[in-house]
Amino acid sequence: MIKDRLKRRHLRIRKRIFGTVERPRLCVKRSNKHIYAILVDDLHNRVITSVSSLHKELPNINEEGKMSGKTAVAYKVGYLMAQKAKELGISKIVFDRAGYRYHGRVKALAEGARKGGLLF
Fold first, then answer.
1. Residue 119: strand, helix, or coil
2. CB atoms within 10 A of CB 74
């Protein structure tokens, strides 16, 4: 039942959000243990790059000790995604929260991406 509501919210959001080559879509996938961030070009139906909490190269950065645990990891994933996007010449994106509420780990990922230099 919860998955059905999440799916409906995601479809409602995706009606308005569309990623292009110049401004790809940053899609967030969240599980109980991990978080994933994917840059998608919807025009050509391809994944540009992706980062997850399973990634070996997560940076050792702290946000003034405000976050801990999975939230801090989500922030680092967003920051690493911004670095990878900058290497590919991408500075502007469209944020797709995939039906999740904009708080907690999803918000931390978005803040990390903004801190890394991405513009939403």
1. strand
2. 26
Q: What is the rounded (10 degree) CA torsion for 37, 42, 48, 54?
A: 20
Is the distance from CB of 28 to CB of 37 less than 8 angstroms?
A: yes
Maximum Cα interatomic distance, the chain, rounded to a whole number of Å: 41
Contact between 53 and 77 under an 8 Å Cβ cutoff? The reply is: yes
The structure's pTM equals 0.86
The H or E element containing residue 111 is helix 105-116
pLDDT per residue as tens digits for the range 73-106 = 999 999 999 999 999 999 999 999 998 999 999 9
